[in-house]
Amino acid sequence: MLILVDLDGVTVDFATTVCEEHNKETGDCLTAEDIDDWELPKFGIKKETWQKPGFFYALKPYDGAIEGLALAHKNGHKLWIVTDAGGVDFVEEDKARWVRENLPFVRGIIFTDQKHELPGDLLIDDAPKYLEAYPGTTVKINRPYNRHVVADYAFDSLAEALKELA
């Protein structure tokens, strides 16, 4: 099976880190659970908070994400990381470095904001726009900001999704 896996919000914990950085900058007390909308500026979070060198490289994986992907690979599945870097070179570099160092068994990383154009048996994602547009089988990783999105499957973690589907 060809499995397309998102990075931020699925494999690595973007929301917790962006909230921590925002709170340091502003004195606010946002948590990942507070982020119930995809548009971060609605919470006062500026793009500069996460679009800085090193931010994406420093993101921590969700519990069981790396192990789940490694097991899916061992079971013969073809894995591609598909992620949007917003066309920002250092974001692409940070993400590619993270994937190389933490997921050396994946086939590669694809940077795109057009995930619906990629062939795959499964798309595992958290972003409403990608889940809604993908023509194939979708797997939603539940987050506060995607509760309204309908997908073929929904799980609370990548590890849980891969255990069940791969």
Q: What is the secondary structure topology, with strand pairs?
A:
Elements: E1 2-5, H1 14-26, H2 47-50, H3 65-74, E2 78-83, H4 89-102, E3 108-111, E4 122-125, H5 128-133, E5 137-141, E6 153-155, H6 158-165
Parallel strand pairs: 1-2, 1-4, 2-3, 4-5, 5-6
Helix pairs in contact: 3-6
Structure, described:
The protein has 166 residues and is α/β, with parallel strands linked by helices. It has two domains: 2-13 and 60-165, Rossmann fold; 14-50, no CATH class. It is 33% helix and 16% strand. It has helices spanning 14-26, 47-50, 65-74, 89-102, 128-133, 158-165; strands at 2-5, 78-83, 108-111, 122-125, 137-141, 153-155. A six-stranded parallel sheet has the order 3-2-1-4-5-6. The longest helix has 14 residues, at 89-102. The protein is globular and about 45 Å long. 36% of the residues are buried. The model has no long low-confidence stretch (mean pLDDT 97).
The domain tally reads: 2
User: What is the overall silhouette?
Assistant: globular
Regarding CATH, which class of the largest domain? Answer: Alpha Beta
Euclidean distance between termini CA atoms: 8 Å
Unreliable spans: none
Give a summary of the structure in a few sentences.
With 166 residues, the protein is an alpha/beta fold. It has helices spanning 14-26, 47-50, 65-74, 89-102, 128-133, 158-165; strands at 2-5, 78-83, 108-111, 122-125, 137-141, 153-155.
